[in-house]
Amino acid sequence: MPRTPSSAKDWFGTFFPLRHGERGSTLTEAFYFSKYWWVRKFEQRGFKIIKVEPNHLFYTMANAFSDSLDLTSRAQLSRLLGSACHIYLLQRSDSRLP
Question: What are the CA-CA distances from residue 43 to residues 35, 54, 97 (Å)?
């Protein structure tokens, strides 16, 4: 259940989180989860990128302020601070579909 950090240890984990993935570090995750990295990987695997759009939602670090930010607020914050994710529309390069 998302919650706002309640201790110094929780806040430390909010600003200096552990990695989420199987490789790299907290610092390299910014690269591994970037639009640039995913577009390159999709193309290497034979996908054509049709469109890439931001999801227009701002996420807070490790659930910080999750109780006080509704979706409308997160959408507004994304205009200023950026979206948390991207949505990819892909097509197999070898596909005969239009």
Answer: 12, 19, 17
pTM of the full structure: 0.65
What phi and psi values does residue 71 have, to the nearest 5 degrees?
-65, -35
| Residues in a beta bridge with 53 | 87
**DSSP3 helix / strand / coil % (the chain, rounded to 5):** 35, 15, 50
What tens digit of pLDDT does each residue of 14-37 get?
777 667 777 777 778 778 888 999
Residues comprising the chain, all counted: 98
Distances (CA, A) of 1 to 4, 46, 50, 61, 64: 10, 38, 35, 14, 12
Rg (CA), the chain: 17
In tens, the pLDDT along 64-78 reads: 666 678 889 889 999
- Return all residues near 94 (Cβ < 8 A) that are at least 6 apart: 46
